[in-house]
Amino acid sequence: MNGLSPDLQTPCLVVDEARMAANITRMNTRIAELGVGLRPHLKTAKSIDIARRMLPDPGGPATVSTLREAEVFAAAGVRDILYAVGIAPAKLHRVQSLRAAGCDLAVVLDSVEQARAVAAASASAPIPALIEIDCDGKRAGLAPDAPQLPEIGRILHESRAELRGVMTHAGGSYDVSGTDAHAAFAERERLAVVTAAERLRRAGLPCPVVSVGSTPTALAARDLTGVTEVRAGVYVFFDLVMAGIGVCAVEDIALSVATTVIGHHHDQGWIMVDAGWMALSRERGTASHAVDQGHGLVCDSTGRVIPHLIVTAANQEHGILALRAGATGPLSDMLVGTVLRILPNHACATAAQFDACHVVPAEAGAAPVIWPRFGGW
Amino acid sequence: MNGLSPDLQTPCLVVDEARMAANITRMNTRIAELGVGLRPHLKTAKSIDIARRMLPDPGGPATVSTLREAEVFAAAGVRDILYAVGIAPAKLHRVQSLRAAGCDLAVVLDSVEQARAVAAASASAPIPALIEIDCDGKRAGLAPDAPQLPEIGRILHESRAELRGVMTHAGGSYDVSGTDAHAAFAERERLAVVTAAERLRRAGLPCPVVSVGSTPTALAARDLTGVTEVRAGVYVFFDLVMAGIGVCAVEDIALSVATTVIGHHHDQGWIMVDAGWMALSRERGTASHAVDQGHGLVCDSTGRVIPHLIVTAANQEHGILALRAGATGPLSDMLVGTVLRILPNHACATAAQFDACHVVPAEAGAAPVIWPRFGGW
């Protein structure tokens, strides 16, 4: 009994409910210990069923990466959402529609032009905005000491818009390994937003929300003085990148792609499966790690890791499994038709290739269920 | 006038209808000159509207990479389909359902086990199968001189199944550049399947279909004696990988992702846009090329290439645009809100991230239209 439906059509996305529940509990416990709020990022899950398990309350708070996510989760009853990607002015009418329908949706920006656009769009009803702060030079955001910070704050505060606070994300935490390194990035996040918040307050501006977060920093942070909330998302499933940088164990990964053996190249030691990059995604986030997991690490149909068997190459609908360089092992039992599971490098990217999750229930003997997923913008 | 709807929400997928039509005409003309049949591969398009423009006849023939594609296109009237990924026995009931509904769906296999499974599933009604031949050691298939080839043929022919022929795909043609190199791969494809077909015929077995194809080999082949049909798909859009190996010009690429500028990192020379890897895919197929196009080459909103501006980094929903190393140029006019288009490394991977195509009509002044796309298995 592997918990999978016997008539499963592969490739398909599999969620191990027990592992997912443990991952959610771990994050909730850690954030409670830190004494701040948790605003789960729903970009990894993109599922109402999973969001309900992640959110502190059915109404939120939540973080999203697209307005489509905001629209779907708002329709499902989430009432407090942060859209955490810099706002494009042409999207503000959708923000206003969601707000008019009762969802407290806030936007993010880091420029005078965006602040002016939000101020203009707030003429009919106020739009709350957080100013994005750059803590590690990896992506968007203003430096905490950027000269235009108070000006942006004033444009928002002195118009009908609402200056709600500051936020940052240490994407750089994914590039380092170990709790100490992640704790150092957590402190960079904290220092960046606390510095920015203090500058705004010294300029006589409000800054009620001070928001940080990434899964590695959320779990490693030691002190979040001055921070009001933490955002994180990939912890719900974890993945091989998170395992590779020491944030979780491989055995914590709750997401996999079920696949079927469709052939062999015996002379090359290859096993062909029906999950290629269309199912696994092209994500190769472990390529730079000490242990390169190829396009994914292979498990049997029950989710038990098969040591040293990885996806070494991926075509659109073909995956090629082979032992890691130098490894040996008996693979002769993998006949055509054998079902395997592949752990993903990056849960967000792999999950995005599927419109449903096949759930292995936490309760032994419970019937498998399917949770719909969505994508788009 | 850029042909895009003024209320477009980015990121979204854009198809230039005139370029697409020219690409289709180019392939049709070339295959007609070679005197063989064309069985367009619909895995790149995944759109009924585009399939109608690619197919020789509304009924087919067509190639697909998933049974979902077979089901969608069969429901839209395509009656002759090859499912060109090695069959998993657990999928044969879906093959039988489609065949019972009037679609002549054929499967592909390369092992005795699969042949036995197809033979067993043919007890109620015959399933036609092609034997996959390996011409370049890149993926699935039997060597043309594999000892088990006649046995597999006999299992199919002597059961209620149907031995329909042989097929191969030179994935290796993507790794070489220039017409001569692609013509050499076309000859490898031809020689592999013609050799296998002759072995089957010498063993007293039928082999009516002898199928080859990839976009580079289809366009470069000089002689296809013994071949009955060519399969190709990515030619409908082309992409930066195809341009990089000399199969098309950058100006032929009919697919792009429309995106909006959402910010800047002026000190780093970065322009932030709202198309990250979720929109562009993680595909980096030009990384090994003479000209590395990063995560995509940037055009203005009309589709005109902006020299040396590429997507140098991609987060989930953020793309970072910057000039190629060493290049200089004025980028100061790209204010927040500017719409750009990004040409993809690999059309199949990028298109798969979207559920619709926004079409720039070939006819000047015609209203933009939307063609739905689908995914899944």
TrEMBL record, chains A, B:
InterPro entries from the UniProt entry: Ala_racemase_N (IPR001608), D-amino_acid_metab_enzyme (IPR051466), D-ser_dehydrat-like_dom (IPR026956), D-ser_dehydrat-like_sf (IPR042208), PLP-binding_barrel (IPR029066)
D-serine dehydratase-like domain segment(s): 254-361
Pfam family, one: D-ser_dehydrat
Record keywords, A-Z: Lyase
Domain of life where this protein originates: Bacteria
Keyword field contains Transmembrane: no
Family statement drawn from the similarity comment of this UniProt entry: Belongs to the DSD1 family.
UniProt name for this protein: Alanine racemase
Organism: Tistrella bauzanensis
